[in-house]
Structure formats: structure tokens, C-alpha cells
Amino acid sequence: MSRRVLVVDDEKGIREALTQVLEYEEIDVQACASGSEALQRYAEFRPHLVFLDVKMQGMDGLETLRNLRVLDPHAQVVMISGHGTIQTAVEATQLGAYDFLEKPLDTDRILLTLRNALQHVDLASENVRLKAEVHAQYEIVGTSRAVKQVIERIEKVAPTAARVLITGENGTGKELVARAIHALSPRARGPFVEVNCAAIPTELIESELFGHMKGSFTGAFADRVGKFELADGGTLFLDEIGDMSLSAQAKVLRALEEGVISRVGSGKTLEVDVRVVAATNKDLQAEIAAGRFREDLLYRLNVVPIEVPPLRARRADVAQLVAHFVSQMTRSGGLPAKPFDAEAVQHLAVRDWPGNIRELRNAIERLLILATGPAVTAQDVERIAGLGTVAAGRGTSPADLAGAPWMRAATFEEFKQVAERTYILAKLKENDWNVSVTARTLDMPRSNLYKKIERYGLAREA
């Protein structure tokens, strides 16, 4: 990429000397003799770096710098002066100048400053690119009414200090909602700290959240900072809050009520400024009735509820999600760029997707890797993704489903449990009862899978 540098100095000799040095380094150089000309030339030339004289007739260098920063807040400017003073250098730095050089100019110093400034430009550009990638990774995709309602709720609650409880099935994008709330809040520059409450053993959850002191329990070989302290000034996302132990819930309640925490093994309290956003796929009212969740904690967390719809309730978004994931995977995942034909997208749209967006994403990745043609077709969807016509809901009659075990369920809740048990058992058999592999296939924390195996009494057949 050709580098562009603008030289601004009312002395012809300085302009010519700088131009000669920079062109020798294969830099594309333009030069001008006044601040007003520099502003016009900057807008047309869009240089990576500006060498700007301080003392010039008419608009001086500092005034030109002010106007440049208005024109482009990211403008990289090196000030040069034959009458340099500390006050001038300080003022130039406060206005955003990258460096300050004194005349007579030294060629080695010019080249060193040039390399450092252009490296700084590259780092800034890379930072912008990475932020854009992160934003794309956590973007909420869709234009359906269900998604628009979620986005509207996020936009209303994010600028406030209110706590938010996000509910929805596994894989619907609850973390994306939490990150969007953080990004649109006054705490956006602070940390976003995530804790998966279901993935942490009960005996370690308090240490994870609040930290511990050396020697407070077996294995505590050093002091440790907890997630609440790490999230100070930012947002703490408590995912799967319904799986948190009652003792940890009591401490979280205190932290929310008083804004203070204490590490395990310490009587000292610490003040924390944390916004808590929680998420769960459980019915917390049912958990309260069963004695597994504190009602007062629910009231503290559920100031503003946001329910994330399952993918089957927003089928109109499937085409956009397919395009989004294909672009994401081909750009950063090294996968071949293959379009999905209309019938393939239709096959994907009619499926219920029990794993929601997470399952859809995995299916798209599998199709991009294994489809052999120039485009992904409906046949590829049936053959590779395992979404045949019956799985997609086509050609299925009540008679076909009458023998299914879940159709004998007395209530809808029983139906869901029977269907989930059948699905997990099938996946365990498919992976030869390797729990780790099955958990990865289902994109589920291994601890969650163990809980479900125990809950449904699943056991490997002899």
C-alpha cells in the first residue's frame, strides 16, 4: 500500500528537502505553503501523516492543527518549528500532535519519526478492524418483528443503570443481548466480564464470583480476585443464573443491595461499581417454588426483562442469518465462499432448530466444509446437515408421528422433557457415550450435560 504524506511549510527549501527525503523512501508526497491550502489538500489527498510547520503567515500551525483534528479526529500530525518552546510543544501535544521536531531537521530523526508514526497508524487501523470484527461477531441479525422488539428493549434499557434479566432457550443469543446492552451503555469503555454459572462447580462458584484469600480453603495457594472486582466500572454477565447455588445467591443479593463484596476467607468488605445482567433458560418461578432459587434475588435481577425468541418464532430471519454466517466464516474462518441457493435456504427455514441459532450456525459451517459443488443446494442440506424432508417438517403427517414417545406425553412440559431425553440419548449413542464429544456437538457445557444425564437417568446399555 502506497503511503501518503502531506508537507506543510511556508519555507520552500524545507518543503523541497522533506519531499526529497520522503520520496527516496518511496512515499507519495504532496507539499503546500499555507494552513488554508493544507486543509483543502488534506480532504482531497487523505494523507497517512502530516508534517506541519508551527510558524506560518496567515493561519499558523497550531490553528491548522485544530482544524485538521476537526476535519479528521484521527489525523496523524508531526509539528516542526525553528522556534520551538516547551509551551508550544505542550500545546501541540494537547491538540493531538504525534510528535514535535525542531529545525534544522535531521534526516535520521525524520525517518525514525516517519517509521514510528506510520506504525502507529497501522496499529490504529488494525484496532479499528478488530473492533469491527468483534462487533460483527456479536451482531444481532434479523429484521423480524420478534427481533425488532428485542432491539427496541435493548436501546431503551442500555443507557440506564437498570439490571436486566434475559430469558430464552439455549442458543437463542442471550449473550449477544448482554453484550449489546453493555456496548450501548455509559459503561461501554469498562470491562465486560462473563460468568457461566452452570459450568462452575457449586463449591467454587463463590470463589469465582467474589475471589478468595490465600489459605481460605484447600487449594487456595494465593489470593485471587473475583469476577465482581474484575467487572468494577463495567458489566458483569451472569449466564445461567438459575444454576447458581443458594449460598452464592445470598452473596450476590448482598452485592446488589449494598454494592459491597467480601472475598472467601476475608472479613474485609470491598466496594464495587458493577452493573449486573443475568440470563437463564429456566423458569425461575418454578425454581423458586421448588426451593432452588431465591425470590428476593429474582426481584433484584428482574428490573427489566428481555425474552429472546427461539429461531422457530423468527423464521423470516433465517435467510439473513445464513448470509451473515457465510460471510463471517469465509472472511475469518478460512472456509470456501459458497452461496446457498433459494431452496437450500428454504429447507433451513422450515426446520424448528431445537438448538436455535447455535445449531443453525454449526449446520452452515458443516455445509460450507462438506458441500462439493460451487453452491450449497437443498440436496446438500438433506445429505450433509441431516435435515431431510421429515426433519424439516415436509411430508410429515400425524400418523407418522403417532408412534413417537413424546406424542404420548400428558402435558406440554412432559412432552418437552421426553423429547429432550430422547434427543440427548440419541446423541450420546451417536458419539459412543463420549460425554465430552457429545457436549461439544451439542455446544453445551459438559457440566450441563452431566446434569441432564443424571436428571433423566440415562445409562449406557450393557
Structure, described:
It is built from 20 helices and twelve strands. The chain is α/β, with parallel strands linked by helices and 462 residues long. The chain has four domains: 4-134, Response regulator (Rossmann fold); 145-309, Rossmann fold; 314-383, Helicase, Ruva Protein, domain 3 (Orthogonal Bundle); 401-455, Arc Repressor Mutant, subunit A (Orthogonal Bundle), CATH 1.10.10. It has a five-stranded parallel β-sheet, sandwiched between helices. A five-stranded parallel β-sheet has the order 7-8-11-6-12.
- In terms of structural class, how would the helical and strand content be classed? alpha/beta
Percent helix, as a range, is 40-55%
CATH superfamily of the largest domain: P-loop containing nucleotide triphosphate hydrolases
Q: Low-confidence spans: pLDDT under 50, at least 5 residues?
A: 389-402
CATH architectural type of the largest domain: 3-Layer(aba) Sandwich
Mean pLDDT: 86
Total beta strands: 12
CATH topology of the largest domain: Rossmann fold
Helical segment tally?
20
- The main sheet orders its strands as 2-1-3-4-5
